[in-house]
Amino acid sequence: MRPEIHDYDLLRFDFGSALRRVYGVEDLAALIPAAPMERLTWQTDQATEYHAMFYKEFDAEIKELYREFVADFVPSILGTKEFCFQRVPTFRLHFPGNVAVGEFHTDGDYNHEDGEVNFWVPFTNAWGTNSVWIETALGNSDYQPWKLAPGQVLKFDAVHWSHGNKVNDTGATRVSFDFRCIPMTDYAPSEKRTVDAKRGLWIGDYYDVL
Predict the structure, then answer these.
(1) How big is the chain by its Cα radius of gyration, in Å?
(2) d(C-alpha 186, C-alpha 84), whole Å
(3) Tens-place pLDDT, residues 32-65
């Protein structure tokens, strides 16, 4: 499955406004930490105060819109209405001088299994070193950045295709989230858990259905 860019209705699914409320800013790309941060690692890239704010406010500010988005956007991409999806998307902040994920990896390295489809959704312009870099062919480790704008989604096989970040030298923060879906024809209950948060990779914990 080669990466693909798809469009969605940005006016209907205005995640940017919700996130600006959460962080009290007018421009998400200008969101900068008040104090210098150490370079994030795979152990710390979900542990900042900004991530804590997102997950704390998720139910009140984003959950309903997110579920509506999944219900509207995903079926036509997967070709089925029968699928499970990541209950809470994974939030990413790619600050200047830092990374958003701690290492180049495949999601398979983190216990995710065949059948998952990854959707990467930026809420600021993403290009160059503030974007996600994905190998240009499966297994070749030749990474290139993807250029997207708000209103676009990158669909790719994160379980098998290696991906990650460069240190952001664009001067602009990239704000995004990503989530995973599995067609029910490919879903198999698993006893595995996510490496960081130890969420169970099954429906009722990490995954949900509409």
Answers:
(1) 16
(2) 10
(3) 998 889 999 999 999 999 999 999 999 999 999 9
Residue 74, in any domain of the structure: yes
Average pLDDT for residues 162-189, to the nearest whole number? 96
Handedness of CA 120, 117, 180, 104 (dihedral sign): negative
What pLDDT does 197 receive? 81
Domain count, the chain: 1
Q: Does 138 map to a domain? A: yes
- Tell me whether residue 47 is in a domain: no
Helix (H, G, I), strand (E, B) or coil at 93: strand
Q: Is the pLDDT at 88 greater than 90, yes or no?
A: yes
91: closest CA among 60, 157, 45, 59? Answer: 45
| CATH code, 148 | 2.60.120.620
The encoded tokens of residue 155 equal 């669909």
Q: Which domain holds residue 164?
A: 4-33+61-208
Residue 91, helix vs strand vs coil: strand
**Joined tokens for residue 185:** 């024809």
For residues 99 and 53, give the distance between their C-alpha atoms in angstroms, rounded to a whole number: 19
- Residue 51 within any structural domain of the chain: no
Q: Which of 28-37, 127-136, 191-200 has the lowest mean pLDDT?
A: 191-200
pTM equals: 0.96
Amino acid at 112: H
Which burial class, exposed, middle or buried, applies to 66 when counting CB atoms under 10 A from its CB (0-12, 13-18, 19+)?
buried
